[in-house]
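Fill in residues.
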């Protein structure tokens, strides 16, 4: 039986308590052992590299079905693999919306054939994402849905959301919530000094905070498994802190809310429109501190590809959203870890261990776990460029930026799905 030894990397996995130079042996798609001087039929010289559990992204838009000009399962999963991600949840705001079992079944079949990474289908919480009629969650689960979400939209009525949580709970499905009160969010960027200076209509922070508070109260009351995604304000993070032990509640924030601020609104470029919007530095700091102290469990990218003709427009007309998979680790490593604001172990926990435990029991290099791994050159510098991104779209807010930390290899179930390290392989005679 062929097995692979990844030799001499600095292995870092807070979940398994691993932090040091060692070998890792992979056999039959799983971690077989970690230690010194291991032997395998195939060997990968990983000297000078770091080996982390593969990153896990609970929030991605692969635009399939319907907008394959922006992303496909093949291109989205190639982008994910290039960013070190080994498991991804696909959001249902597609065309058609993923709100019927037949659509879930079709997607599940397609990801088996077309995805390089483990891909999970989120079905919609409401038919057509309209926040009125609940979807048939039991049937969606039978068809292969992993969770339900109306991501992209908030839920208009607290009563409807409460019913949705009760039904999701009885169907055994987690709910991923985009918290936004649309009666408050009539603008396009964060309602603050930058919006006023730019003369662009603002969305108050309360649009997120009011909806987050409602969702948390209902999650605690119903006992549903609720994950609040893309928390972007300090107050919403504090609300999560108050409620997280009062229910089955988790939360994430994004690389862009951790690294960018609404100062970028001053460029007037549609590129910097995103939902929830980029916030002032106080919120960025509050969200970061909540990630550091584990009030927020993990990071998710909200990878949201958009066609150039829908993004390269004035702020008011541009579609909201950023690419995320390929820059997530490097942006966070460059901006937070290297500046001493987040430890490397906490970053690995937030990108791998915690979301992996939440989704599928991956996110660890412990013996017996699936061999889902990211090999990273922490000293590797690179410039983010539309030419080299694997996504079909080019809307990265980091375009032109020099980042440190380069994913050079990604392994899913023992197979190399992103490979910048081919030359390091050797076969033992
Ligand atoms: O900026 C965003 N883009 N936020 C969302 O919630 C949805 C996403 C998209 O689908 O483009």
């Amino acid at each position: 039986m062929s097995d692979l030894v990844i030799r001499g990397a600095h292995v870092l996995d807070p979940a398994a308590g691993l932090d040091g130079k060692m070998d890792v042996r992979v056999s039959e798609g799983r971690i077989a052992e970690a230690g010194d001087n291991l032997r395998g039929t195939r060997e990968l010289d990983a000297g000078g590299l770091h080996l982390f559990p593969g990153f896990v992204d609970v929030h991605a838009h692969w635009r399939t079905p319907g907008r394959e000009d922006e992303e496909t399962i093949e291109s989205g999963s190639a982008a994910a693999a290039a960013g070190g991600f080994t498991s991804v949840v696909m959001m249902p705001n597609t065309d058609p919306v993923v709100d019927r079992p037949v659509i879930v079944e079709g997607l599940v079949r397609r990801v088996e054939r077309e995805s390089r990474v483990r891909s999970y289908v989120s079905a919609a919480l409401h038919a057509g994402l309209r926040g009125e009629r609940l979807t048939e969650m039991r049937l969606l689960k039978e068809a292969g849905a992993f969770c339900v979400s109306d991501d992209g939209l908030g839920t208009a009525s607290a009563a409807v959301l409460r019913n949705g949580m009760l039904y999701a709970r009885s169907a055994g499905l987690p709910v991923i919530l985009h918290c936004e009160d649309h009666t408050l969010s009539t603008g396009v960027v964060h309602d603050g000094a930058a919006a006023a200076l730019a003369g662009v209509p603002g969305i108050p922070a309360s649009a997120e905070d009011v909806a987050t508070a409602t969702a948390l109260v209902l999650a605690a009351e119903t006992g549903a498994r609720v994950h609040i995604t893309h928390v972007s304000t300090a107050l919403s993070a504090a609300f999560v802190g108050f409620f997280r032990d009062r229910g089955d509640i988790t939360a994430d924030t994004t690389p862009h809310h951790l690294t960018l601020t609404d100062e970028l609104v001053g460029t007037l470029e549609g590129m910097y429109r995103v939902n929830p919007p980029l916030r002032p530095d106080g919120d960025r700091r509050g969200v970061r501190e909540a990630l550091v102290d584990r009030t927020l469990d993990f990071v998710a990218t909200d990878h949201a590809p958009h066609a150039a003709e829908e993004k390269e427009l004035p702020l008011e007309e541009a579609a909201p959203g950023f690419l995320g998979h390929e820059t997530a680790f490097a942006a966070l490593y460059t901006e937070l870890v290297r500046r001493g604001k987040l430890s490397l172990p906490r970053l690995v926990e937030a990108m791998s261990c915690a979301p992996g435990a939440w989704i599928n029991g991956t996110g660890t290099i412990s013996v017996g776990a699936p061999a889902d791994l990211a090999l990273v050159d922490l000293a590797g510098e690179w410039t983010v460029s539309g030419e080299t991104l694997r996504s079909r779209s080019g809307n990265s807010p980091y375009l032109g930026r020099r980042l440190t930390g380069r994913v050079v290899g990604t392994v899913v179930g023992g197979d190399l799905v992103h490979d910048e390290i081919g030359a390091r392989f050797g076969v033992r005679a």
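The chain has a mean pLDDT of 96.
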